[in-house]
Design brief:
Elements: E1 3-10, H1 12-16, H2 20-29, E2 33-40, H3 44-50, H4 60-67, E3 72-80, H5 82-90, H6 103-107, E4 116-118, H7 122-132
Antiparallel strand pairs: 1-3, 1-4, 2-3
Length: 140
């Protein structure tokens, strides 16, 4: 498997509890290099676009409101098999199902307030990186 890039969000529940550094340390310990990083706060329109794939799900409104409730940290992670590796280090969506040592097991509050987002495929990773970062912000 080649070197890949993936997109990550440290979500409002985590930034609010000062967990940005602890979560970044988990990525780095897993061999993922943080190649771009910034703290932003999304508008409702941006959150609705970003999570558009979930627009028909019952939790869509709650999810978008949560994602704009506090600043978030958006990052690009790079490494061998980065997309799958990041999903592994994140753990299952519901912290009750997440494996020991994963970010969601250690830090998530609930299935909704689950501390991190990570891209699920190469196509979504490329789209999500381009949604938040300009070419100038991405070192080759
Ligand atoms: P993410 O896309 O954030 O990396 P994921 O791929 O593990 O998480 P998805 O199924 O894509 O999970 O859901 C996107 C997000 O929507 C979840 O991370 C969570 O914040 C929220 N979510 C998912 N299921 C529920 C639910 N049943 N109730 C409330 N919120 C939910
Ligand atoms: Mg997802």
């Amino acid at each position: 498997m080649a070197i890949q890039r993936t997109f990550s969000i440290i979500k409002p529940d985590a930034t609010k509890r000062n967990l940005t550094g602890a979560i970044a340390a988990k990525f780095e310990a897993a061999g993922l290099r943080i190649v771009a990083s910034k703290r932003i706060q999304m508008t409702l329109a941006q959150a609705e676009t970003f999570y558009g794939v979930h627009s028909e799900r019952p939790f869509f409104g709650e999810l978008c409101e949560f994602m704009i409730s506090e600043p978030i940290v958006v990052q690009v992670l790079e490494g061998e098999d980065a997309i799958a590796k990041n999903r592994e280090v994140m753990g299952a969506t519901n912290p009750a199902d997440a494996a020991d040592g994963t970010i969601r097991k250690e830090f998530a509050l609930s299935i909704g307030e689950n501390s991190v987002h990570g891209s699920d495929a190469p196509e979504t990773a490329a789209e999500e990186i381009a949604f938040f970062f300009s070419g100038l912000e991405l070192v080759g």
